[in-house]
Structures are given as C-alpha cells and as structure tokens.
Amino acid sequence: MEVDHLGIAVHDLASALARWERTLGSAASPPEEVPSQRVRVAFLEVGETHLEFLEPTDPASPIGRFLESRGEGLHHVAFLVPSVDRKLAEVSAEGGRLIDSLSRPGARGRRVGFVHPSAFGGVLVEFVERGQ
Amino acid sequence: MEVDHLGIAVHDLASALARWERTLGSAASPPEEVPSQRVRVAFLEVGETHLEFLEPTDPASPIGRFLESRGEGLHHVAFLVPSVDRKLAEVSAEGGRLIDSLSRPGARGRRVGFVHPSAFGGVLVEFVERGQ
Fold first, then answer.
1. What does each C-alpha distance from B118 to A27, B39, B73 come to in angstroms?
2. % of chain A residues with pLDDT over 90
3. Which domain holds residue B24?
C-alpha cells in the first residue's frame, strides 16, 4: 500500500500554499472545489506522496467544524488502494466503524471513502482509488 | 523533498501495531526507545514512506501531554532533508519559530529537528537527515 496524501485543514488556502511551497520547493496543483465535502483543496507533491490542503467553503462542513474545535493542522491520512469499496468492506468486517459505507467521488476525479477515527486509534483514514 | 514518516501518538504500541499491520499488510520494525523524547517508537513501511507510532514512556513527555489533551491520533509529519541544521536555520531566517535550534539524535540513529507548529499553520514539522 502507499500513502496517497496527508490532509491538512487550513483557514486560508492561498496563504497556507505560499508558506508550504516555499519550504518544500514545489508548486501546488490549481485549487479545486469538492462539493460533497464542502471544501476547496489543492495538492502539493512531496516525493512519492502529496499534502492535501483543505479550506472549508461552509463553516458547518466537517473541515469547518474541525477547524473550530481543534484549529489548523493534520486532519487525515489517505492510502491508495485498488478498490475503495472492497477495502471499506474489509475494515467493516473486522469491526471497524465506517464514515462512508460505499466509495463516492472525491478530489481529482478519484473514488474515495472515509473510515471513522475510532477504527484506527484516533486517526481519520481515507482510502483513494488509483486514477486512470 | 520526501515525506520520511508520519508520526502517530498511541497509548499502547503493541495494540496499535497489530491493528495497522493487519490493514496495511506490512510488518513494523522492532520497537526502539528514544530517551531524548521519552517515547518508544516503531516504524511501519508504507510504500516510499513510513508511519511512526509513538508511545510515551513518561506521561509528562511531549507525547504523553499530547495524548492527555487531544487523545490518540496524527501527531507530526517528518520530511527528509540533506542537512537538518541548514533546514532549521532556513526556517528560522524566514521567521518560523523552532523547537530545536540544532539537530539532535532521533530514532533509527538519525539526526532530527522539530519546528514549532506555529511556523506551519498548526502542523508539527520534523526534519530528518538521511541515514548512512
């Protein structure tokens, strides 16, 4: 398995990107809106993986609520899998609580699915299907 | 630059490793004590990067206090750099607050250095020097 990306919740995409691009020496992808999550996101390539910066478009969205309760910071880790539906079913069969019982459209045209943090000792885990 | 590892704070190393090894299908490194951080850690390889699981050996250690205030979960992200001292100096020169002004010995015999989360919008960043 591979780490597809590490999600970071931010108040303001532009200022976060400016700061991280300078430190990592790479340029972020153009921001993209993900309506199902009520966020705008941009990806910054770092070696074989990516940082995903998430800015809420709605304060009542999951990222908006995260920012309100915990402030900016590390939000989730996403693993690349051949089939998100199969992986979610596997986690569920082992007794892990799911957020998404089936995959749904995420950023970059990929299928994604989230597992509840209780399943992985407090870590919010996302599975992402490899793009075409 | 590359993501060397993603640090995850846990109460109990053995039970966290059992859970994650099953999901990721890989075996963790033997646990190692890092006296300077008052933690026991183990690494799990995931593609080109690693998950580092940190269990406090002292409740007053940074990881012990993190667990008390926020519970288990994502703790820091570590980037591989040619020179930790040079990278820390660079961040400091740009006005970023440091935790370590100079590199010090970390896990796996590597030199490491931490930057204060305020420098990267709430994200605790570690720099790790490539091993021999």
1. 22, 23, 19
2. 87
3. 2-129
Whether residue B17 lies within 8 A of chain A, CB to CB, comes out as no
Structural domains in chain A (count):
1
Q: What is the pLDDT of residues B75-107, one digit of tens each?
A: 999 999 999 999 999 999 999 999 999 999 999
The verdict on B6 touching A (C-beta cutoff 8 Å) is yes
pLDDT at A132 over 60: no
**pTM for this structure?**
0.94
Pick from B20, B23, B72: CB nearest A122: B72
CATH number of the structural domain spanning residue B58: 3.10.180.10
The ipTM estimated for the assembled molecules is: 0.91
- In sequence order, the 6+-apart residues with CB closer than 8 A to the CB of B13 are B31, B40, B41, B42, B53, B55
What is the DSSP code (8-state) at residue A28? B
